[in-house]
Amino acid sequence: MTTGIFGYCLKASLPGHNTGGALRARACSDESGEKHWGNQTIELSVVVAAQDFGSSLQKCLTGLTAQIAPARAEILVVSGPGGEVVFQLGKKFPSIQFIQTPVACSIPRLWSAGIAAARGRIVALTIEQCVPAPDWAEQTLRGHAAEWPAIGGAIDINPGLGLVDWAIYFCRYSRYTPPFPPEFLDDLPGDNCSYKRAALESLREVIADGFWETFVHQAMRRKGERLLSDPSILVYYAGSFSWGTFFARRFRQGRYFAARRAREMGTGQRLVRAGMFPFISLVMLYRIAKRVWTKGRYRLKFLAALPLLASFLVAWATGEGWGYFLGPAAGHDEDEAGAGVVLDEIR
Q1: How many CB atoms lie within 10 A of CB 322?
Q2: How far apart are CA 328 and CA 256, in angstroms?
Q3: What is the reported pTM?
Q4: Rounded distance, CA 211 to CA 105, Å?
Q5: Ranges of H-type helices in 231-276
Q6: Which of 69-83, 142-156, 192-206 has the lowest mean pLDDT?
Q7: Is it true that the peptide bond before 134 is cis, omega within 30 degrees of 0?
Q8: N or C: which terminus of the chain has fewer CB atoms within 10 Å of its end residue's CB?
Q9: All domains of the chain, ordered by start, with CATH?
Q10: Reported confidence tier of residue 71, pLDDT bands at 50, 70, 90
Q11: Helix (H, G, I), strand (E, B) or coil at 59
């Protein structure tokens, strides 16, 4: 028997119904790379990364459990230590596996832990702030009937959210706002993306440092693989971030992104990139505005959220500049970096 994506079988901590401790489960892969629980093959694994345990998490899990049959699919919620919150969620959603890491982690590391525990032929990733459309699982499996190793979907927004969440939505998801035709892209939204297990197994070294989708997709493209964007696979951003939380996370994520890219750069190239940081937010804002205006949706909301959006872009750009200036060492404490897809980086 071989082990999973990281060379080991991850133990999943499941909330028990007593105070004597957690139930334990162990999932391992066979020589074909498919995960089994007993003798049962799982068709789809959905990995939900959760950092905040906000109100949107229950909406996300309710939407998933309504369309996923435990006999052929599984839902894994991966988080840092959650205590009583996870215990209560486990009682409300008994079919879901809850995996807790010993310390708080970034979303990419939570995804990595979930991938290691997943048993499915297809592994889908999302976060607690995304609520799936009623046919999300069906459309995901339909898409993977074709040969494409990675398929990303569309991300729309709950229109009743406040301006902070609208700014977050434009910052993170403008590229994936429907409508758009099915097309091949150079990057996909990690918050609504799925992969064939064979593709993930071939990327162990890239994923071992956390599932940072931008770098994972770069590695896939270098191997000649194509990334499909399919608008029929739809989730809705349901919000729940505060301005301060998201601002801090964008700074830290920008810093880590640059620090990781700096591994392949000399000192001179890093410093040149660091000096360009004032322009990064302007380029990102131009790209976002162009997408919003071209699609013709949410223009008024974009204008209303523009000051908040600009603050998030400046946070990212400042973090990216600082990451280039410090070099690879700037990414050593990224475990508090937070969530979200990496968009519009200046290559």
Answers
A1: 18
A2: 8
A3: 0.84
A4: 12
A5: 243-261, 267-275
A6: 69-83
A7: no
A8: C
A9: 11-237 (3.90.550.10), 243-336 (no CATH)
A10: confident
A11: helix
